[in-house]
Amino acid sequence: MSLPTLTPQQAADKIRNGAVLIDIRSNAEFAGKHINGARSVPLDQLSNNPLPVSSDDIVIFNCLSGMRTRQNAEILQRHAASCREVYLLEGGLNAWQQAGLPIEAKPGQPLDMMRQVQIAAGSLVLLGFLLGQWVSAWFYLLCAFVGAGLIFAGLTGFCGMAKLLARMPWNRV
Hints:
Elements: E1 5-6, H1 8-16, E2 20-23, H2 27-32, E3 33-35, E4 39-40, E5 58-62, H3 67-71, H4 73-79, E6 85-89, H5 92-98, E7 103-105, H6 113-134, H7 140-156, H8 160-166
Parallel strand pairs: 1-6, 2-4, 2-5, 5-6
Antiparallel strand pairs: 3-7
């Protein structure tokens, strides 16, 4: 079963009337920018922590683009089952910003993890290719290793590179 969605304006109206906005992105993403008044409950920590809501609350879940909330709607609904109403913010933080609604942004925060993984994986593939061309064909194995890692991450949902990058000093919140 999928959860109903709200446009940014509809969500803003409900928030003004007391709805609780739950941001399911990582702590680092939330620290970089988030919707004013949102509460951070990262998706990976949701099973360990109860939602900071009561049974009388209207809950709206958001992420960056709305994709994570849609993909995890069943899990989110299960965790908010006792709430009065549960919604997803259509288009996430991106749509909220495009609608001209207020956000809280802190410049100088790290890039979101997906972009860091894309930059690191792309850099390693390019490095492996260039070294394979100029130094030794053995360096092409680096490209294959990164490609295999990306396929594994896509199939299993576990990304070793993201786990490694999350431990880097610039990603500590």
